[in-house]
## 1
Amino acid sequence: MSISVCIATYNGALFIERQLSSILIQLSVDDEVIISDDNSVDSTCQIINSLQDPRIRLLKNTHKSGPVGNFENALRTALGNIIFLADQDDEWLPGKVNETIALLEDYDLVLSDCQVVDKKGKLIYESFFHYRNSKPGFWRNLYKNSYNGCCMAFRRDVLDYALPFPSAIHMHDWWIGLLVEAKGRTYFYNKPLINYTRHGSNASPTSEEGYSFQVKIVNRLLLFVSVAKRLWG
């Protein structure tokens, strides 16, 4: 069973080597790490290339700019039977791959818990699930999303109905999570498997802070309509 780890990068030089080291040590020689870079202007690509690991495929984002398009660019080329999503600035904890794969024998998508840390590695929250009151369920997660892409892994056949991403959605991980809630089997694994780094410049926020109430409502309506069209339209 082969694995594809899909990462979207943009000016991630500060943390990308640490993150890749934590990932690669858990993969076999037949697995791959697909990195789609959204025209970074720092040394992100140079750091990635300096690792000279044949499992890494570095792509330039030729899709829509931003995290959603950047992740789609990576996912479109994934070859593995199991897909992991990862952010450029986190750190995988030992056992993440093996524990997740074991769970995916019975589920289509696994969302694991994570420890939230600052840029120096200082613990902020021991459990994102506890902080967010995370639980499965379509309507619950449409109302209050817990689907952090960096904590997600899923079977390849999820891509058959998740791609292409609709232009109306603003979060790729929320989209994938809701689709599998509606169509497949999800599992919330109550064990932190990554250090989720919050440093103030993250491309994907942990919540919708900064959005107006009206925008939040519109985002949910667009997501719901997009899911309905994809699955039942």
## 2
Amino acid sequence: MPTFVAAEAHGDEAGALLAFLEAQRGGLRRAVLGLTDAQANERPSASELSLAGLVKHVAQTEQGWVERAQQLPHSIERTQDTWHLSFQLEDGETLAGMLTFWDGVARRTEEFLRSVPSLDDTFPLPEKPWFPPRARQSMRWLMLHLIEETARHAGHADILRESLDGKTAFALVDEERAARQG
């Protein structure tokens, strides 16, 4: 999704990084603009990805990383057998509900990251085969990782949305702008 982030308008480094993260979140949110739950759950490509599933995955992933940085237990545990559930809405879940959930996650992410004394502060990574033993990462790394993760999936969302109804990122930006002015 096309975005412009005036980083200097956000003060410090944390503010700039949070602004870039929010811009990527906006790209994914725009990709579901005006869709019904049925449309958002469609899988218009050879992959198993849906727009609703991407929203859920990004929201839960952000929440999990921030909980990890706070050294809290994960509120949503996933195993190899349940990983796929992070990419699909389950019974009772809606796109609107997932967007509301994500708004809360985003608010808590910003509150936490603005509360840390320094972006150089570190937290331990979990003991997983894909992380080095006893690895630690900084809060700056966390913010960059969240931007990376969200941007990757916003790109997926662009493709899925265009496959659904032909709307491109530029058309959706125009629709969003018109709705705000209107």
## 3
Amino acid sequence: MSEILLELLKSRRSIRRFKPEPPPRDLVLKAIDVARYAPSARNSQPWRFIIIEDPVIRQRLGGIHIYARPVLNAPLAVVVACMNEESPTSYLLDCANATIYFMLAAHALGLGTVWIQTLRNVKEIREILGLPDNVTPVSLLAVGYPAENPALRPRKPLEEVVYLNKYGEPLKI
């Protein structure tokens, strides 16, 4: 079973083209349910998930910057927002963990996602979604059934990214 799980992790791809039919809400909620199990500092669980089905709101979110365009053709989006006070020193990492848990769960359920960076557009997203100042939108995810099957993009070799004991000390693999 562990090899199957490792292959699942390695087979996830960023999906930017989606089939038009929306996934059932219970499938999206199943992925969110899994995301609740992501690690967070002091088990603070500062995340909130906003499912965006409204096409007008998706249109506005898809226009926040050029890389948000996949939201325009996705049948729905999910925003992972963080309650800053619930984890003041690590809320960004906590919600990044929840984001990747959601993405992996969605992949396991046959859905495609792409993580769209939001931190340069926090004020605009807060306005679109009615978020208070103490809530930071950490990620925007386009979600749906994949209409593409992207190939694996090259990865750096282990020798280039792993050191032993100190930075720059090569690990002989």
